[in-house]
Design goal:
Elements (H helix, E strand, L loop, with lengths): L9 H17 L16 H13 L15 H4 L13 E8 L2 E10 L6 E5 L23 E6 L17 H15 L6 E6 L1 H13 L5 E5 L5 H12 L5 H12 L6 H15 L10 H8 L3 H8 L26 E6 L6 H10 L3 E6 L6 H4 L1 H16 L18
Parallel strand pairs: 3-4, 3-5, 5-6, 6-7, 7-8
Antiparallel strand pairs: 1-2, 2-4
């Protein structure tokens, strides 16, 4: 997917990225990037009140459960096997090509709400999810960072046969089992490529899930490529687009000019709507650590469409068979079509749509308060049976407070 971490020949482009950043910083934007102005009451206000209650020794009042969830219990790791390592577990994974280990890290304790995060790429890292630390603990959500096999914190075998969707699905199931997650508590959030993986996991193992979140990912790569061609490319300067196309035609992806053009004319408008020198450190690290040996075979080398193993992937027709409560997240400035993601929620028997009008592909940063408020509300509603598994739930648009 074209994500904030969707690099091409990443190992070759480390220097190109740095060179492009230097060139970018030397210039001023020709167009001003509009700052995020949500225009609604801030979730930070709510979280500040929660923090005040906690500091006074009272229980967390913003609760995922029907009753308030005590802060001391959320922070109590005394009976957790991963206490010594601060929540980190390196989980053994069996594959057709041997056994490897993948990295996970737990934050918090909640027996009813456990959220596993699937990062994008493929071959990116959990690092850009670190924005969760500013919101999910105050809501009492137990959550898990996880680097998929081939990603920076996990083993990185150089075995091309491992980079297939069914093998990744098997991996997620092994991680779930090792972490002790089940249908009483297991929520799965997939962003970008992670959204593809989350959909595939749900189609095969939805009996293990309590809820599903598909963030900034369409259900069809052909539809994604069509959206890029029809909608996104025409918004670019014609001379710039022609130069990008020439570089791609020559397969000159390691040329610093390629990344310079994409950063200035595409990334800061559709991947993360902030000036490049304001991009948060977790995003910088996610870029830096992407593994091209996973990314390129699956996504393909071009930043303006998918051409790898995922090129024909389409699960639009199968969404109706996902019977668990599901949240889809779209953003108006995304590389993904937000109308498509809203239609996904309507196709799901128990779907809900979260709209991020100020956001791009990384809406957890550029429409952050709205993103996390909608996510927390969904988790709370599912946990409190406000999204029945027996009757369809209409798609909703979370724009206001």
């Amino acid at each position: 997917m074209r994500t904030g971490f969707s690099w091409v020949t990443r190992a070759q482009l480390v220097h190109s990225w740095r060179d492009a950043r230097r060139l970018f910083k030397m210039e001023r934007h020709e167009r001003r990037i509009a700052p995020t102005q949500p225009g609604h009451s801030s979730i930070c206000t709510e979280l500040a009140a929660i923090a005040d209650n906690a500091n006074n020794g009272s229980h967390l009042t913003r609760s995922i459960q029907g009753a308030s969830w005590p802060l001391e219990r959320y922070l109590d790791n005394s009976d957790r096997a991963d206490r010594l390592s601060g929540g980190v577990q390196c989980i053994p994974i069996a594959t057709p090509h041997g056994r490897f280990k993948v990295w996970t890290k737990r934050v918090g304790n909640n027996p009813r709400v456990k959220l596993l995060l699937l990062h994008g790429g493929p071959g990116a890292t959990h690092e850009y999810f670190e924005a969760c630390d500013s919101y999910l603990p105050a809501a009492g959500i137990e959550y898990y960072y996880y680097d998929q096999l081939g990603s920076y914190y996990s083993d990185q075998p150089d075995i091309p046969e491992l980079w297939e969707i069914p093998r990744f699905v098997d991996e997620v199931e092994q991680v779930r089992a090792a972490l002790g997650l089940n249908a009483d508590n297991f929520f799965l959030l997939g962003h970008s490529w992670g959204g593809i993986l989350a959909i595939e996991y749900a189609l095969r193992y939805q009996q293990q899930l309590k809820g599903l979140v598909i963030s900034n990912m369409m259900a069809s790569i052909p539809a994604y490529n069509d959206y890029a061609e029809r909608v996104l490319m025409p918004t670019m300067d014609a001379v710039v687009l022609a130069e990008i196309k020439r570089l791609e035609a020559a397969e000159d992806y390691a040329n610093p000019r390629y990344m310079e053009l994409l950063l200035k004319h595409h990334y800061v408008y559709h991947v993360l709507r902030m000036p490049l020198d304001k991009w948060p450190d977790p995003v910088e690290r996610a870029f830096k650590h992407l593994n091209p040996k996973v990314y390129i075979p699956m996504q393909g080398p071009s930043e303006l469409g998918a051409s790898g193993k995922l090129a024909a992937w389409d699960r639009s027709a199968e969404l109706r068979s996902i019977g668990i409560p599901t949240l889809t997240v779209g953003a108006h400035h995304d590389t993904m079509d937000p109308q498509h993601m809203q239609s996904m929620a309507r196709s799901l028997p128990h779907g809900r749509y979260l709209d991020c009008p100020e956001g791009s592909h990384m809406a957890m940063f550029d429409d952050q308060e709205r993103y996390f408020r909608g996510l927390i509300r969904f988790l709370s509603d599912v946990d409190n049976d406000r999204m029945s598994s027996r009757a369809p739930v209409a798609a909703t648009n979370t724009r206001g407070p």
